[in-house]
Amino acid sequence: MKPFLSIAVAVLLSAQEPTISVNVSLVRVACTVTQQNGHVVTGLTQSDFQVRDRGVPQSVAYFWSENDLPLTVGLVVDISGSQMRNLAKHRATIRQFLKQVLRPGDRAFLVTVATNVRLLRDFTGDGAVLADDVDYRLRDPGAPLGPLCVPHGIMPSGRPQRTCGGSIIWNAVHAASKKLQDVSGRKALLVLTDGVDSGSDQRLADAIQAAQEAETAVYSIGVKGEQSSIGLVGRVRIARTGLNRDELKYLADDTGGAAFLDNRSPEKVFAQIEEELRGLYLIGFSPQGVACDGEFHELEVTAGKDRRVRSRKGYYCRP
């Protein structure tokens, strides 16, 4: 769904399916509002929000509290060489997420990333099926999601050099965001990785733009990787690669998500993510006083004193 268009949103509430139609061109912005101590603020109304588009005040014409809507989540798991020793941890983390966060009516899909991006399981609301995938198929190649790596020249070793490297993380985020493009309601990407990209043909900026255009918050869950090399005496050496903290945080901040890079327990991470996603607000405005020039428009969203609003940093205004 493009961020600047006429929309008709089907809303699932309880057993009914009323449709909310908006007959004007709107920019939609999903917002998480927290107090200074980090607790999510609920119960706000349309009048509590203020929006500035390139510094120009805008009138909030559309307001929707999404706390009762189903949730759609893309799980992106790094299974590249640096993460081999973390696969058991990844399995446990995802199982914990499925148990703790997904409810009846929610959906998720599972993507793995190494030298290629693979769709291991498409949209499903069956948590048991996803759990089985995590337990038994996490190393399975799965179906390709996006273009595969292709040979591109010959390395000094004689092996073909490929256009994609060992961990094409930004390609994975970009492809997963595109899958969420036409999904309405609450949605997010959870990315388990060390953030060390080695060969994506999509830039970090491209991945962020794809998530912004899909109105999807990205939650980065940092897992330190390991890198092996052969020493002079033929022994394998294991070295920590650490975390690409800056870019993982940038990815989360610019899409309205959050980065968890402090080795916090999965239970605490998912409790915070669930609280935020089930307390989202959705606001809409029709840009006034700014030129719709196809360029990036920075947004500033506030909701009163002593409240922090997290949302995507802006949108591309398509003429």
Describe what you observe in this structure.
This protein is an alpha+beta fold and 319 residues long. It has 2 domains: 4-67 and 279-316; 71-277, von Willebrand factor, type A domain (Rossmann fold). It contains 6 helices and 20 strands. It has helices spanning 87-100, 127-136, 169-179, 204-213, 245-255, 266-277, and strands at 4-10, 19-35, 50-53, 56-58, 62-65, 71-78, 107-113, 117-124, 143-144, 151-154, 160-162, 186-193, 217-222, 225-230, 236-242, 258-260, 281-285, 296-302, 307-310, 314-316. It has a 7-stranded mixed beta sheet, sandwiched between helices. Strands 1, 2, 5, 17 and 19 form a 5-stranded antiparallel beta sheet that branches. It is globular.
Indicate the topology:
Layout: E1 4-10, E2 19-35, E3 50-53, E4 56-58, E5 62-65, E6 71-78, H1 87-100, E7 107-113, E8 117-124, H2 127-136, E9 143-144, E10 151-154, E11 160-162, H3 169-179, E12 186-193, H4 204-213, E13 217-222, E14 225-230, E15 236-242, H5 245-255, E16 258-260, H6 266-277, E17 281-285, E18 296-302, E19 307-310, E20 314-316
Parallel strand pairs: 6-7, 6-12, 12-13, 13-16
Antiparallel strand pairs: 1-2, 2-17, 2-19, 3-4, 3-18, 5-17, 7-8, 8-9, 10-11, 14-15, 18-20
